[in-house]
Amino acid sequence: xxxxxxxxxxxxxxxxxxxxxxxxxxxxxxxxxxxxxxxxxxxxxxxxxxxxxxxxxxxxxxxxxxxxxxxxxxxxxxxxxxxxxxxxxxxxxxxxxxxxxxxxxxxxxxxxxxxxxxxxxxxxxxxxxxxxxxxxxxxxxxxxxxxxxxxxxxxxxxxxxxxxxxxxxxxxxxxxxxxxxxxxxxxxxxxxxxxxxxxxxxxxxxxxxxxxxxxxxxxxxxxxxxxxxxxxxxxxxxxxxxxxxxxxxxxxxxxxxxxxxxxxxxxxxxxxxxxxxxxxxxxxxxxxxxxxxxxxxxxxxxxxxxxxxxxxxxxxxxxxxxxxxxxxxxxxxxxxxxxxxxxxxxxxxxxxxxxxxxxxxxxxxxxxxxxxxxxxxxxxxxxxxxxxxxxxxxxxxxxxxxxxxxxxxxxxxxxxxxxxxxxxxxxxxxxxxxxxxxxxxxxxxxxxxxxxxxxxxxxxxxxxxxxxxxxxxxxxxxxxxxxxxxxxxxxxxxxxxxxxxxxxxxxxxxxxxxxxxxxxxxxxxxxxxxxxxxxxxxxxxxxxxxxxxxxxxxxxxxxxxxxxxxxxxxxxxxxxxxxxxxxxxxxxxxxxxxxxxxxxxxxxxxxxxxxxxxxxxxxxxxxxxxxxxxxxxxxxxxxxxxxxxxxxxxxxxxxxxxxxxxxxxxxxxxxxxxxxxxxxxxxxxxxxxxxxxxxxxxxxxxxxxxxxxxxxxxxxxxxxxxxxxxxxxxxxxxxxxxxxxxxxxxxxxxxxxxxxxxxxxxxxxxxxxxxxxxxxxxxxxxxxxxxxxxxxxxxxxxxxxxxxxxxxxxxxxxxxxxxxxxxxxxxxxxxxxxxxxxxxxxxxxx
Length: 846
What we know:
six-stranded mixed sheet, disordered C terminus, alpha/beta
């Protein structure tokens, strides 16, 4: 009793208006420690210490405002023994009607609010969802957060009361949250604040709150919160994801990528499809309208099973009718179903399976129950399994049904090694366990993870929120006259916003495909990156370092779903590191901010876009996604190992290299098939990675786009033009003379003051030229092969270069890093560059 009374007194001295007294606060804290020392029971002592620790981690509370809901903002990282990842902050709300919690992974974080039905452990539930959201959000600006509320008593299932509790929860959180004025000045809430300014709080829909966004925004607008109706994405003045079909269209980019690599186009080639969901649903309905050439042969939802073994050509029109009228499978016009098909109740004990249905499902049984038929559909030997429903239907053979945590579907679930579909599209959440995905991929199925496939929805919400933040500022400053015109801007920009989101889906899938190719060449770098992520505290679902250490063939574990997980965790780790490092304010990086928004908006309000409140976070996210999408999962880790540079330094130098060798232009080259495309891109990325590492070994300062003069850039462009004219139009000089002349043109136009800077420029020139020459050497027919002897001479001489030469040029530490490069050829390339430089300088211009 004395401990509790003293603890409350301590909180009063910390937070009660008019009672805050630092001296009494300290004296009370010391008295608490004295009381703790006198407690003899181990359990009581542990409990009291825990309560004291929680009280000490509280940074804001409305307890002394005498409101119906008591809320506490807690700095979670001051608490010990919390499950990883530990939130940055959490807000706990308590009242007689409900309890609620909101966990935030970072200062800038976003995620849904769930109506939980787990009163005994809803924080555990919300924490697991926050963890997943943090990984899922790595492609967007904010980190992950999650909130949930649990209703007490007899009204715990009343939807109307749930809405009331939801709004009270939102109000209690906003009461503890900072606000911003029209000029950007932070305004504190009317409570004692023991933490720094923290004005960013946004929410989204989740289980049980899908239609609550407008009500959350009502609370925000009533409170005068600076985000206005950007507080909760969606709603009547936001983007309608079902109308856009953005989640399905994003997942469809994954499907298209899988088929593209098999030489097919699912939008023109006939493909057989089975699915989870119905046409009334957003993800399933929109997805099944994206191709008129698909043959939907079977599908099921929570009530019915649909079979159409040989769909007629106009089946798309019937699917569209169901979608437009929000109808389930029982609304399908059965006269349009092919022979042997039909619509059946999922609960049926016996369903006769026709010859046609048996053939398309690849089974021989003539009669099945509804549940058995669903399992047969999931196992069907088709081109595409499209998940657009709710539930977990595939686990690993090593898992139990309880591992799937979806008891409603225990009787229809199959194992990953039973999947016979060539491609899986996960538009819905949690359709597979991660181990189930790994098992399916190991058996030959092409699939990602749900976090990759259905990221379009969360990405669109992020673009919407950041657009509204900008438009809200324009409203407050009078640059947009009224709310109606603001809404016109939102509507006008929607088509371009959709394309920006779909571009992200395409880029993420290309990244995974390139990494699958890299994996075949260098599994060790992926093993090292995996260990790096685990050492940083990231637990990758479905796989552990032990699995890899004990395997004689670790490459077989790195199937695409594992790469998806590694990609998310790598982005999360790198993003946190770059944000914590400061910097990233270079004017040249501004283009990544401008490219995030539609061009029409940037043209109309350029200065407002440049000063967006989340400027830094948007730039970091865009730069990181760009670097990882092209460089792959292992790029940052391997470059760190080679050079000792930070993630921020690596990113900046990579951008400089890309600008010098004109990588964006090189990537635009068209190719007849996926294999040629990936080989071309990998050859570019090999050059970029190698050159980035070499630059970082000389200096941490990024080049060209991050500081070089306009004259430097013009000089470099002139040299590139000189080389291009020679190699494409057949100049009179030999290849050796051309290369020599190129060196001297550059060095004489504006010779850098420091030799190391000169070496960096020459490195870039020669690497770019070598790439050009390489392309001609590999061509089946080339009139210039005789002109490439200089290139061959450098490569032939590289083994005869004396190492002392390099020792004279490089400090020992840098030489050591050169020798330790995972690609041994990089060392030889570096030596060749230095010898080539020496030869040119000693000989003079041609």
